[in-house]
Amino acid sequence: MMDIKLSAVEKHRDLILNAERYIWEHAETGFREWETSKYLEDAYESLGYELVRAGNIPGFYTVIDTKKEGPEILILGELDALLCPTHKEVNKKTGAAHTCGHNAQSAALLGLAAALKDEEILSGLCGKIKLCAVPAEELIEIDYRAQLKKEGVISYFGGKSEFLSRGYFDGVDLAFMVHTTSGDNFSIGMGGVGCLAKKINYHGVSTHAGSRPWNGKNALYAANVGLMAINSLRETFKEEDLIRVHPIITQGGESVNAIPDLVKMESYIRGLSFDAIYDANIKVNRALASGALALGANVEIQDIPGYAPNRNDKNLVDLAIEAHGLLDSGREFIKNEVYSPSSTDMGDLSCIMPTIHPQCPGAVGQSHSDTFYIKDPEFACVMSAKWQLAILTLLLSDGAKRAKEIIKNHVPRFKSKEEYFACLDRFISEGERVEYQEDGKATVKLW
Question: Does domain 7-192+309-413 correspond to CATH entry 3.10.530.10?
Answer without folding.
Answer: no
